[in-house]
Amino acid sequence: MHQDFTITARVIVAPKIPSMPELSIQGIPHTDLHVREIVQRQLQTRRTNPPVSRKSEFLEEAYDRCRDICAEYAKTFYLGTRLMTEERQKAIWAIYVWCRRTDELVDGPNAIHMSAEVLDRWEERLHDLFNGRPFDMLDAALTDTVQKFPLDIKPFRDMIEGMRMDIKKSRYENFQELYLYCYYVAGTVGLMSVPVMGISPESSSNAPSIYNSALNLGIGNQLTNILRDVGEDALRGRVYLPQDELAQYGLCDEDVYSRRVTDNWREFMKGQIQRARFYFNQAEEGASELDKDSRWPVWSSLLLYRSILDAIEENDYDNMTKRAYVGRTKKLLMLPLSYTRSVSTSSAFH
């Protein structure tokens, strides 16, 4: 049945500060990113490829490796996945590992060998695994996942496009450009995850709005990563901050490279943090509409990343020389809180 809907990119204007200019924000229309088409395709529960015959022991080992990688590098998120059904757990681990491997092409230990050709080959491998021809064991886990869940290839291709941006671009003139980058490298993860996590049968929201929330969580997470890593990125000659907004606060790249935290920098950061929180607030709208067994990892991620923003504030907005850090104890304390949020159908609790 054909379903008409519209997905729109939400934007926020940072609060106006006396004697400081208001940040002007422009979002990317989701129609330009073809998000509607992705959602429509993923709402169609169909398989385009016949299942590939593989020994169950091979696939079990593949998923076990994915599980171990997720447990090692995303501990809080991993613990949240333990409430999910076994099939969904495996699928989310497989998606996580593919995304991590993609990111490591640019930011990992072998990033020095990165080139456009490497990404082209990686995209060819992606097409192969979607067509039942995985290259290695970890690819095989995702191939099996693609055959079990209605995953569209475009979010995966878009993430690779984000890696292409990373090797070509080290400055972003405005928030519109930065938003596009955040969509490619993180918003896409939300679009990949919803078909696996599932939508609650009791949900009162339509599917497009839930996809919107998932996309917004990815945007918020990436904006938070950027704010957390300003100092580290500057050492690599990268500034993932809107140039026009820096200028409005009397700042430029040299201020970032000098790693001096001034009053102007603090005021600038307040607006950036407010914008990231806006996207988390939008993500809340759909987090409790997912299948009840899938909500915990989403709330764990949402609360963890919000805490990173809190830590930047606690460091007096010094993200130049200090890394905003959420300690192990605090992370563990978040688990019961995120679980409480995940079993609540109300989004009024803050």
UniProtKB/TrEMBL annotation:
> What enzyme class is recorded for this protein?
transferase
Q: Does the keyword Cell membrane apply?
A: no
Could you list this entry's UniProt keywords, alphabetically sorted: Carotenoid biosynthesis, Isoprene biosynthesis, Membrane, Transferase, Transmembrane, Transmembrane helix
What's the Enzyme Commission number for this chain? 2.5.1.32
Q: Does the keyword Disulfide bond apply?
A: no
InterPro entries named in the record: Isoprenoid_synthase_dom_sf, Squ/phyt_synthse, Squalene/phytoene_synthase_CS, Trans_IPPS_bact-type, Trans_IPPS_HH
Pathway given for this chain reads:
Carotenoid biosynthesis; phytoene biosynthesis; all-trans-phytoene from geranylgeranyl diphosphate: step 1/1
Record's Gene Ontology CC terms? plastid
Which interval of the chain is the signal sequence?
none
Database matches in SUPFAM superfamilies: Terpenoid synthases
Reaction equation(s) it catalyzes: 2 (2E,6E,10E)-geranylgeranyl diphosphate = 15-cis-phytoene + 2 diphosphate
One Gene Ontology biological process: carotenoid biosynthetic process
PANTHER family the record matches: BIFUNCTIONAL LYCOPENE CYCLASE/PHYTOENE SYNTHASE (PTHR31480)
This protein's name: 15-cis-phytoene synthase
Q: Which organism is it from?
A: Artemisia annua
